[in-house]
Amino acid sequence: MRMAVSKSTLSIVFIVLGGLAVLFGTVLVFVGPIIIDDQIVKNVEINPNNGLSYTMWKDIPVPFFMSVYFFHIVNPDEILKGEKPTVVQRGPYVYRENRWKDNITFHDNHTVSYKEFRQYFFEESMSVGDESDVVTIPNMLVLGASVMMENMPFPVRLLLSTTFKTFNEGPFLTKPVGELMWGYDSKLVDFLNKYLPGMLPTSGKFGLFAEFNNSNTGQFTVFTGQDNIRKVHMVDSWNGLKSVDYWRSEECNLINGTAGQMWPPFMTKESTMPFYSPDACRSMELVYQRPGVSRGVPVYRFVAPKTLFANGADYPPNEGFCPCRQSGLLNVSTCRHNSPVFISHPHFLEADPVLLDTVNGLSPNEDEHGLFIDIHPETGVPMKVSIRLQLNLLIKSVFGISETGNIAEVVMPMIWFEESGYIDGPVLNTFRTSLVVLPMVMEYMQYIFIALGLAGILGAVMLYVNDKVKSRMGDHPSADVDPSSSASEKTPLLRTPAS
Fold it and tell me: Where is this region: Disordered (predicted)?
């Protein structure tokens, strides 16, 4: 009887505990997501009290690299005669990129202003060669200026050609990678800066990236998210502007999205990733492609839509970025001192096939030349970034400027570069623990409590039923046994053989 009471008591205990577990798990189903979201909100807003996310935003303590590929021209003399250019890709030449924010100022309207600085350091171990490697590319000072001056009076063009000859400037440059990147001495540049100040983007040496090193990207003012987390990292203004004046439509001139480093949390597959790029002088937008996992963290991959660099004829909203050439080119001359410069995807990926036909040596493919960002959708923090762009120069023969010879009109690839980074090391571990593992554990806990509770209740019921069945069997012996016959049946077993 004592056993029966013990089992009944145990059943009641299991039912109570199971019921509490189910109740707690059910409460977590409704309350858990709120707690998790609240934790994410507190961690991703721009707030100096948030050690992890604020440090990631301010100093960007992740490995970041710029890989540069040159399109080395192998037939410059033939190009001057009107033949198709042939190029060979040289690279990568890899530079470690340091980025940090300075002049950080918080404002009363939940915004913060800052300037982001950048420095580049050559990484020979990651490169195919040294910065002393020599390559041949178009001379922007000659071929670019020639296109800019083609509609000027003929005497002006003759004077320009004479100036090129005076300073011994030809249509192509054959120089070391380091000089082409960061600047080389040019008497023509010195002359122009002295007598036509402001005509060139640099007052010192002339190089493709001379204005990038030890520089900043302008003053960004972005929302901190403290009043509305959906606006965190979104740009309020750039250099005090809400829009630029480089393009021909109000929509194209708008400064939309973030500064291109982090995005608001709680992204879905329907979300887009808008950002403003001072280097491209415009806002751009990436779209969802597929889910994935990056270093143990679930991510969404966002990529450039096929319409990003489409011309106005193929994609009417882009009409404001014209005058356009073939699809696949963004004319950035208006924000590059009117130089005939175009941005595209590397190797003219996703561009009009006509562009590929005008240059030998190009072979686009998505894996090597497509740009993407792998982002943790719950927090809006990129886990892996690969932004790939190509710099092109429109070259052609200009009457009166003999340096241009008989060059056929062609958009000539000069370089393409990839800016890539990924979260790793202690920062990754802290991020994964705080913003991925703990929320995941909390999410699983609700189901674990419900499952354990239901199992406890089911076990208690089975224990109770089993106890009742045994009790009944003890109180009501089997009807098949006749008590009166038991003594007579047992007697023979007690007799000896002699009896």
Answer: 475-499
482 in a domain, yes or no? no
Per-residue tokens: 396: 């052609």
Residue 224 lies in a domain: yes
Q: Which domain holds residue 23?
A: 1-62+436-470
d(CA 380, CA 368): 25
On the CB side of 304, CA atoms within 13 Å amount to 24
Is residue 60 within 8 A of residue 100, CB to CB? The reply is yes
pTM reported for the whole predicted model: 0.83
Length of the chain: 499
pLDDT digits (tens, 9 = 90+) for 416-434: 999 998 887 777 777 777 7
Task: Give residue 495's pLDDT band: very low, low, confident or very high (50, 70, 90).
Answer: very low
- 25 or 400: which carries more pLDDT confidence? 400
Residues 269, 256: Cα–Cα separation, whole Å: 20
* Confidence tier at 485 by pLDDT (50, 70, 90): very low
Average pLDDT over residues 15-33: 75
**Rounded to whole angstroms, how far apart are CA atoms 222 and 107?**
10
Question: Do 78 and 56 belong together in one domain?
Answer: no
Tell me, yes or no, whether 397 and 456 share the same domain: no
- Taking the CA atoms of residue 225, residue 227, residue 231 and residue 237 in that order, the dihedral angle to the nearest 10 degrees is -90
Same domain, 232 and 314: yes
- Do 384 and 276 lie in one domain? The reply is yes
